[in-house]
Task: structure prediction
Amino acid sequence: MSGVNKVILVGNVGKDPEVRYLDNKMVVAKFSLATSDSFKKDGQKVDTTEWHNIVIWNKLAEIVEKYVRKGSKLYLEGRIKSRTWEDKDGKKNYATDIVCDQMTMLDSKKSGDDSSYMSSGPAARTQETPLPAASEQTDDLPF
Result:
């Protein structure tokens, strides 16, 4: 039986993505994503932020290049990938990336701005119908 390597993140982009077109016609986008959490310690609310290195390939990277900017709110699915390398001084370096294979943009399109954001999936805002005032409600329930 094989293992499971699945990551789901919802957070904000920390800086504009860096997009590169490689010689083999592949496209890669890289950026940082901040996820936040809060808890109470000694009665005080404490906020923590975790930063994740995101790597996205090919068609999804092209979408990132076109629509994702610093501050964009994203839902990402992918897997954890660790890598090691030696720098020019022979020092061993380590990094952990999230290789993303699914993305949903959670920002709604800004009015008057055709280039920055697009609405997608369940995050697209819909107009809600207001509930009737309490005086307009009746006790006639259908069950």
Q: What stands out?
A: The domain at 7-108 is CATH 2.40.50.140 (OB fold (Dihydrolipoamide Acetyltransferase, E2P)). The chain has one helix and six strands. Residues 111-139 have pLDDT under 50 and may be disordered. The longest strand covers residues 27-41.
